[in-house]
Every structure is written in structure tokens, then in C-alpha cells.
């Protein structure tokens, strides 16, 4: 459903409108996680928080060395992001990736364990990529051509990821006039993004309630292994609404 509606929107933009294009500081943040398919192939993706432009790479394995090399390749193309947010897997939380972040001068953060929603941008990209791969397989299509069209498709902000990243759309198999491919910076992109985030947050918060902050030493119950609940105490509060909880002699990171 996503691809069908997206292609129809892109077609209207390609033939009828004079596309507005953008450029600004890209890769304010970068999201990284992997996509596992039923065919046992693994993909990694990185997504820019500013432009929503994402890269997709086929992985030979899930080792830290492979993931770091993929990062280096993409950072050399787009520049080094200030912040890289990844899942909390052992292939990211290790000395090799820590050394990589230090040598390449970026801050590495991770989502809370067992709380995928904490890395919402990554989860949204996973859904897009999985649906895209599934549709390509069903139609025996070309994943890279499909990805090209997705990158050139306007989203809720009103501009395509390619427009916001490169100040212009790139040429695809959909015919368009040349003026639509010329660079034209888009004004107030950040304002458009903030308005969309505010709107999405409003919808999300309608049926939620605000919980009070937990205090250091306060007793809490946490899931340690699967569905087993254990009692522990708050040891430290982290800036991303997460806490370090001490259970017996072990410490765990959990979101409130």
C-alpha cells in the first residue's frame, strides 16, 4: 500500500509541478539497524533525521568489522554525522565500534534494550524497507530502482528525501521536465519537520499519561529475562528517559 500511494504522488509531482529543492546541514543524526529477511539475507540501513534519506546495503555477515566498513563507506559519501543511534546489539556495543566512534569524531548512542520504540526512526525505516523488499520480490523487480523512486517521493513534509539532501530530485524512469531536476534550495525545511513532529506527537500523546520521574534508590520491577519480572532499585537516571536498574549484582538499562 505504501509503494502504490507513494508512486502515484511522485507521478503527479513529476509531470505537473515545478519541484522545490533543498539543501542544508544533512545527517544531523543517523539511524542504523539491520533488516532480516525470510531468505536469510541481511540488510543494514542508515537514515538521516534531517532529510529522511536512507541508505540500504546488503551484508555478507553481521560482524562489527562489516558494519563499521559499511558505515565508513557511507560516511565518506555523505559526511560524518554528529550522532549515530543504533540498536543495542553486541555488534554495536563493543570496543571496536567504540574506537570507531572516537577516531571518526561522532557520538554513539543506543536504543534501550527490549524497547524498539525508543529508536522510532529506525523502526519506521525498517517497515518501509521490509515492505519495499517484499513488493520487489513479489513482482520480480529491482530493489535499487525501487529505492531510487522511494528516495524521490515527497513525504508528509511535502518534499522528497532527495530534495532535502541534494537540493534537487534525481532522474528516475518516470519522465519529467528538466526544470524539475535543477537545484533549488527549499526554505524553512526545519520548520516543516518540527511541525510534522509536533503533529505526530499530538496524535501519539492523546491516549497516554505522564508518569512521575523515578528517584535514585526507588524499588521497581523490571523484566530481566523474557517475561520474568524481578525487583531492583534505581541506580542512575539517563538523559533519554531511561534508567539504570540494579537487580542483585547486575545492572540493566530500561525505559520508564
From TrEMBL:
Which residue spans adopt a coiled-coil conformation according to this UniProt entry?
none
SUPFAM superfamilies, alphabetized: Ribonuclease H-like (SSF53098)
Q: Which PANTHER family match?
A: CCHC-TYPE DOMAIN-CONTAINING PROTEIN, PROTEIN CBG26694
Say which domain of life the source belongs to.
Eukaryota
Q: Which GO terms describe its molecular function?
A: nucleic acid binding
Taxonomy of the source species? Eukaryota, Metazoa, Ecdysozoa, Arthropoda, Hexapoda
- One GO BP annotation of this record: DNA integration
Residue ranges of domain Integrase catalytic in the record: 63-191
Q: What is this protein called?
A: Integrase catalytic domain-containing protein
